[in-house]
Predict the 3D structure of the following.
Amino acid sequence: MRFTLLTAKNDLRRRLRDPMSLLIWLGIPIAIALMIQLAFGGSGGSSPKAKVLVADRDESFLSGLLLGAMGQQQGQQLPFEAESVELEEGRERIEEGDASALLVIPEGFADALLREEPCTLELVTNPAQRILPAMVEESLTLVVEAVFYLHRVFGEPLDAMLQEPAPGANTLPNEEVARISTMINSIMERMGDALFPPVIQLSIEVEEEEEEDSDMGALFFPSILFMTLFFLAQGLAEDIWVEKQQGTLRRALTTPHRAGEFLTGKLLAAMVVIAAVCAFGLVVGRFGFGLPLKNLPLAGAWAAVAGALLTSLMLLLQLMASSQRVASLLSGLVMMPLLMIGGSFFPFEAMPPLLVTIGRKTPNGWALEQLKAINADGYDPTSLLASFLGIVAISGVLLYLCTRRMAGAFARS
Amino acid sequence: MIEVEGLRKTFGDLVAVDDVSFRAEPGAIFGLLGPNGAGKSTTIGCLSGLLDPTAGSVRVLGHDVVGDALAARESLGVVPQELAIYEDLSAAENLRFWGGAFHLRGAELNRRVEEVLERVGLEDRAKEPAKQFSGGMKRRLNFACGVLHKPKVLLLDEPTVGVDPQSRVRLLDLVREEAASGTCVLYTTHYMEEAETLCDRLAIVDHGRLIAEGTLAELRGMLGERDLLRLAGAFDPDKVGAALAGVEAIRGDHEVVQSDAELLTVSVPQASRHLPAIFAALDATGAEVRETTLTQPSLETLFIKLTGKELRE
């Protein structure tokens, strides 16, 4: 045990003698997250909005109502901004790619609606864009449905309001206005029980919660952290070739200690480095990218243990290879697919369901999901403890295989 | 002490060590002399526990290196042929780590580190990273790592390869000091001079087999105190044997080791006294001598006698 600690201390001392490597390892998650942040347009800004041009050829009360509905939603739920234009201007601007869509409200829109006749709204979308026009289409469907239901409820008074005034008069007579008002009031009274139920009260309790500035960086950050863990594991595992080439491995094997003690010491040192990089990465993720982070020590410990598992795996691959070049190829062949499918290159949220199912079963994918659960305070302690023990057991088996290989053919070749 | 009995080590079809037996005593330097590829490093590998013998047994202070490996290694100090130091650590840090691996700690470890650094002449460079050292300094640090814990058995595998003359002299002195302090030293080399000046007892190995063993005097005795006379030029091999047999002064007391059209090698006692008679006899056969080399009895001549080739070939 003392030799194990001695080896771990010695390895850590060697790491500190190479500060550039440490800085590079610390910088990997931040650099990649920053690149992604830049690629996706920065953090914390407003959501992207589509520009919709509206050509109102009906210019009726109801078409105005539709335009108003769109206008009132600006800055709230609807992901677009409406702008009134003439039809020709609208078509020209769509061709120039100046907007995401052009909505044409045809002549006779109001009459058709009131007479319950078929009516078509024309939506011309920008072919150069895919996502924003689709969002506009979805949102407009909601607005049109709202206008339809408005007509179903207030159809009669609306019809009366749209009647032409008597010849020689500019407005409806007072009696008619009073009649329409009484009609609307009567409808509101009839629907009062449904619209304003006095018995039921909705109590809304808002749990005090830190405002999460979740953005693309935060979405990608856990994945990036695991990508870093993989690179780190590979880098640390490659140190066994340094030990071999500088002869210290053979000397270590002539000391009165078992080979496993030496290797365990190296793995312990690797875990300390991994824990430090992870803790640093998680703190940067929290304060720099809005990563949800509830249990920093637990998350750091989990990442370190998961890192030990990955290091053991990478170490076994290094020891299986006949040369350092073959070892690099071999570990690359294993690492890259695991990174891609295990949610480290692309987050699971952006992957097809089938790949997500497979990816969550990879060692890194499984560990990544656990880390996210810990960060979000959504983990089951019993299950997590079992996972911890499982990782320790698997790492132990891998370490045993590594020791056999190292003390055998690897050290002697 | 080291006891090796019928040691055999194979790698597939290659027999690296074949039925080697010897015994090295405390306070003495036992040399394993042989050309590159003779099996010296493989023997050291088996002794240090890095390689498992295919057959035979190796015991260090009575502990079998396979069955009782950890106890055997407690007494071992190894100075491998290749450097075995952490280049990015300082000399003192290297020594502290390897000393700790052999249970040295605290004040005792510090004292030993200082002592050994002084012995190998690195006390002024103790805090510098080893990567800044010259080749000779690295060799001395490599040696220091092997002797720091005062091992009872010291294995040295060609420790002077690639070392400058000054560092070599210093290293050889250090080896003598280790033996003088009672350590059992096993020293492998392919340098004749080193073996002759350093070792109390020697084993000559070639192609994995031990072909001669004894003290330097015993090995020289195998040559019968004969000089080795090597002549280069033009000779008639069919006439040379009879011509030399006709030289009365050496008749019955010489041996033609090698004879061809360009080279003649003769083992003969006190060759310098008989050179005129030998040259006259060869001249009578029409031979032309262009170069003459006279070698007094040595391990080199013994090796040539035993294997028919030079050690460096």
